[in-house]
C-alpha cells in the first residue's frame, strides 16, 4: 500500500528520515479542490506517467502526499539534473555571503591550470554564464569531455578535460543545456570554501530545514558532480521548492539571499534553440530553473520535478520513471493548477476523504506468478540471450520455487530476492558500493519465470525473463539509465 501523511493544519517536527518538513493541512482548508488532484492521479494512471512520489503544498501547507509502494517517504531517489538546483542553491549561499559574485570569472575561482592547457574563451566565462547555461558551447560538451566517470581511474581530475574543450561562441550569447557548466560550479564551490556541495548545503540550507544530507555521485577526486547525482526524497524536493517560493526564508530565518532567489527563478539571456523542445522548455532559463507556462521549475531526466507556482502560492514535487516529461507538466496544468485556488476551486469533506483514501492506496503493481504453475525440481541455470542490460551479465539462475534470482556478472553471482505478488528487498554489495533493489515475480508457467527489478533509489527498473525451453534469458531495462546499461553504475551507497 502507499504511504500518506494527512493532518489538519498541524505543525510537525522535521523528519530525520527525509519527509516533508512543512505543516500539513486538508485541501479544503487551503482552498484546493481535491477533485482536481484526483483528476491528476487519473491522468497519471491513464497516461502511464510512472509516479513514484508526489507532494502538493499550498500556503506553506502540504495538502497531498503519496509514495507509490515500494517507494517511500524516507527513500531517496536519483534526481538527475534536478541536482543542478542544489548546486545553484549552494552558489546562492556564497553569493549571499559576498564570497562569490555572479560576475566573477570562473577561472579565477578554480584551481590554477598549467599554462596553455585551457582552451581560448574560458577566460571570459563568468559564474552567471554557468548558472544560465550560456557558457558558449553549441551542444552539451560533456560528450567531448568523456564518459561520466565509469572508466575514470581514482584520483583523475576531470577539470583539465573540461577546460580543454573549446567554446563555440562568446559567453552569454547562446543557450545550450551544458553539463560542464554546472560541474564547474560544483568545483568553484569547493575551491572557494574548501567544502563540497554536501557539506555546505547541510550546514546552511538542508540542516536548518530539517532535511538529511543526500548521497551524491562523485568524480574520481571525490567532488560531487553537480549537474546530476544527488539522491533526494520527494519531501526534500518539496521543502526546497517551498524555500524558493518563500524567497529564501523559512520560519523567519533567511537562508538564501532574496535578490539571488528572485534572479534565479526568472528567465535570463538567450532561450533554448532545440526545435524538438516542448512548450515548457522554450520559455527561458534562469539559474538552473526553467520558465514554464505556470511559474518555474527544476527538473531531472525521467520525470523528477521541483515546481514553484508563485501565482497559486503552491509547490509540487514529483519523482517518477517517465521519459515523456512534457506529459507530466501537461497533466499538472490541466488538473492541478486549476485546483489551486482558481475559479470554483473548493473542496468538501467527502472529496478530501476520497483523495486521502486514493493517495493511501497507490502502489507500483508487483508481478504475480501463474496460479498452479508446475515448479522445476531444482535450480534452473540459463545463458543470457538478449535485452539491453550490460552484456557482462551473461548467465541467470533461478531456484526451484522462484523466490531467488541470481545474475552472473564477470564470473560473480549477484542475488535478488523475488516475491510473488509483493516486493522483496535485496542489496548488492561490492568492494566499494551497495545497491538496494526490490523485486517481484515468479514462475508464470512450468517454462517461464518473470521478474521485475526496481533499482529503488533511482527512477529505473529492469526485467528478467527466463525460459527453460530455450535455455536462455532476456534482461531488459524499462528505460535505459543515462549512466549506461550496468545497474552497478547507479550505485551511490558506500559498501
UniProtKB/TrEMBL annotation:
Domain of life: Bacteria
Transmembrane segments: none
InterPro entries in alphabetical order: Beta-lactam-related, Beta-lactam/transpept-like, Diverse_Enzym_Activities
Beta-lactamase-related domain sequence ranges: 53-323
Pfam families associated with the record: Beta-lactamase (PF00144)
Name this polypeptide is given: CubicO group peptidase, beta-lactamase class C family
Taxonomic lineage: Bacteria, Bacillati, Actinomycetota, Actinomycetes, Propionibacteriales
Amino acid at each position: 500500500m502507499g504511504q500518506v501523511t494527512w493532518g489538519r493544519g498541524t505543525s510537525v517536527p522535521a523528519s530525520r528520515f527525509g519527509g516533508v518538513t512543512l505543516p500539513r493541512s486538508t485541501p479544503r482548508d487551503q482552498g484546493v479542490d481535491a477533485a482536481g488532484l484526483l483528476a491528476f492521479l487519473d491522468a497519471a494512471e491513464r497516461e502511464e506517467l510512472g509516479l513514484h512520489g508526489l507532494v502538493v503544498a499550498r500556503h506553506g501547507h502540504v495538502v497531498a502526499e503519496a509514495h507509490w509502494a515500494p517507494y517511500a517517504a524516507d527513500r531517496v531517489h536519483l534526481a538527475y539534473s534536478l541536482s543542478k538546483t542544489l548546486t545553484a542553491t549552494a552558489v546562492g549561499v556564497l553569493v549571499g555571503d559576498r564570497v562569490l559574485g555572479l560576475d566573477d570569472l570562473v577561472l579565477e575561482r578554480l584551481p590554477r591550470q598549467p599554462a596553455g592547457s585551457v582552451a581560448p574563451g574560458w577566460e571570459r566565462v563568468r559564474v552567471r554564464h554557468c548558472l544560465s547555461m550560456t557558457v558558449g558551447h553549441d551542444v552539451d560538451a560533456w560528450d567531448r569531455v568523456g564518459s561520466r566517470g565509469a572508466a575514470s581511474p581514482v584520483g583523475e581530475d576531470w577539470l583539465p578535460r573540461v577546460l580543454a574543450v573549446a567554446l563555440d561562441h562568446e559567453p552569454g550569447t547562446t543557450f545550450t543545456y551544458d553539463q560542464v557548466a554546472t560541474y564547474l560550479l560544483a568545483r568553484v564551490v569547493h575551491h572557494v570554501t574548501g567544502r563540497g556541495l554536501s557539506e555546505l548545503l547541510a550546514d546552511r540550507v538542508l540542516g536548518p530545514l530539517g532535511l538529511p544530507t543526500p548521497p551524491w555521485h562523485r568524480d574520481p577526486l571525490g567532488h560531487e558532480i553537480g549537474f546530476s547525482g544527488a539522491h533526494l526524497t520527494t519531501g526534500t524536493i518539496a521543502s526546497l521548492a517551498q524555500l524558493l517560493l518563500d524567497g529564501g526564508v523559512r520560519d523567519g530565518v533567511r537562508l538564501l539571499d532574496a535578490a539571488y532567489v528572485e534572479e534565479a527563478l526568472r528567465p535570463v539571456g538567450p532561450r533554448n534553440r532545440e526545435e524538438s523542445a516542448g512548450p515548457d522548455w522554450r520559455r527561458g532559463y534562469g539559474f538552473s530553473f526553467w520558465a514554464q507556462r505556470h511559474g518555474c521549475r527544476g527538473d531531472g531526466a525521467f520525470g523528477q520535478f521541483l515546481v514553484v507556482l508563485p501565482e497559486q502560492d503552491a509547490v509540487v514535487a514529483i519523482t517518477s520513471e517517465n521519459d515523456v516529461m512534457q506529459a507530466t507538466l501537461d497533466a499538472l496544468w490541466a488538473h492541478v493548477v486549476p485546483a489551486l485556488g482558481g475559479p470554483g476551486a473548493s473542496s468538501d469533506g467527502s472529496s478530501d476523504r476520497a483523495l486521502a483514501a486514493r493517495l493511501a492506496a497507490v502502489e507500483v503493481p508487483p508481478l504475480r506468478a501463474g496460479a498452479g504453475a508446475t515448479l522445476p525440481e531444482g535450480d534452473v541455470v540459463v545463458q543470457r540471450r538478449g535485452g539491453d542490460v550490460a552484456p557482462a551479465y551473461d548467465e541467470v539462475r533461478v531456484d526451484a520455487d522462484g523466490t531467488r534470482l541470481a545474475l552472473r556478472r564477470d564470473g560473480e553471482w549477484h542475488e535478488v530476492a523475488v516475491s510473488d505478488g509483493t516486493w522483496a528487498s535485496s542489496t548488492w554489495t561490492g568492494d566499494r558500493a551497495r545497491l538496494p533493489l526490490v523485486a517481484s515475480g515468479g514462475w508464470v508457467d512450468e517454462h517461464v519465470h518473470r521478474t521485475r527489478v526496481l533499482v529503488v533509489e533511482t527512477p529505473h527498473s529492469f526485467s528478467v525473463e527466463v525460459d527453460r525451453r530455450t535455455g536462455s534469458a532476456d534482461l531488459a531495462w524499462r528505460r535505459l539509465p543515462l549512466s549506461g546499461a550496468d545497474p552497478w553504475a547507479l550505485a551511490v551507497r558506500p559498501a
